[in-house]
Amino acid sequence: MNLLLHICCACCLCAPLGELRREGFKVTGLFYNPNIHPFLEFRKRLKALRVFQETDPIPVIYCEDYGIKEYLKNVNYEGNDRCADCYAMRLRFVAAFSKKNGFDAFTSTMLFSVYQNHEQLKTLSENLAREHNSKFIYRDYRYLSECSHDLAKKKMIYRQGYCGCIFSEYERYKDTTRELYKGNLSYSKEEKNTVEVFNTEDDISQKCNCFGG
C-alpha cells in the first residue's frame, strides 16, 4: 500500500517510519507545515529532514514556502481552538494531496507525538478521509516517542523545543527568558534613570497548550 505520511518534523519520524515499513507500507513523506515559525526555525526543520534522508532514504515531497501568511489566514490565533485550526489546515491539505496524487492512504507523524491532542487528530483525519474519499491509516505509536527522540539524538538530528507556531515558542521559553535577564543587568545611576522595563504579559499563556515536537 502506498502511504502518504505527513511529516511534522524529522524527530517524530525516526521510530514510526520503521514500524510502518515493517507493516508493509511503501512510505512517501510530505513536509507541509505552514505553522512553523519563525523563518529560521522553519529552515532548521527542513534541513533536519534532509539530514534524516541521508541516513535513512525516504522519498519526501517538500512544500518549502514559508507559510506565515497561510497560517494567519487559516488559524484563529486569538481563540481557544488555535491548535485544532492548525491541525485542520495541515491535514486537509494532506488528505486532498493524497487523493489527487493516487496514494492509497495517508497518515501523519503528529499522531505519534505525546505532545499533541491525539483524539482530536484521529477524529479530524477520519472526517477528512471521508470528505475527500480517501483512506486514513490510524496508528497509536505514542509509546515510540521516547525511542524516536533517542534515535534522533544518535543521528545528531535537530530536535526542536516547541511545537511550531510562534505562540508555542513563547509558551515554551517565556519563563527561561525571564530568568535569563533577572538580576543579570547592572546600570549606572544615570542609566537607571533612562531604562524602563516593560512587562507585556497577556492572556497568550492561556491560549497555548502545544509543547514539544
Automatic annotation (TrEMBL):
It is an enzyme of class 1 (oxidoreductase). Disulfide bonds join 163-165. It catalyses: epoxyqueuosine(34) in tRNA + AH2 = queuosine(34) in tRNA + A + H2O. [4Fe-4S] cluster binds at residues 8-9, 83, 86. Keywords: 4Fe-4S, Disulfide bond, Iron, Iron-sulfur, Metal-binding, Oxidoreductase, Queuosine biosynthesis, Redox-active center, tRNA processing. Pathway: tRNA modification; tRNA-queuosine biosynthesis. GO terms for biological process: tRNA queuosine(34) biosynthetic process. GO terms for molecular function: 4 iron, 4 sulfur cluster binding; epoxyqueuosine reductase activity; metal ion binding. Its EC number is 1.17.99.6. InterPro entries: QueH (IPR003828). Belongs to the QueH family. Catalyzes the conversion of epoxyqueuosine (oQ) to queuosine (Q), which is a hypermodified base found in the wobble positions of tRNA(Asp), tRNA(Asn), tRNA(His) and tRNA(Tyr). This is Epoxyqueuosine reductase QueH.
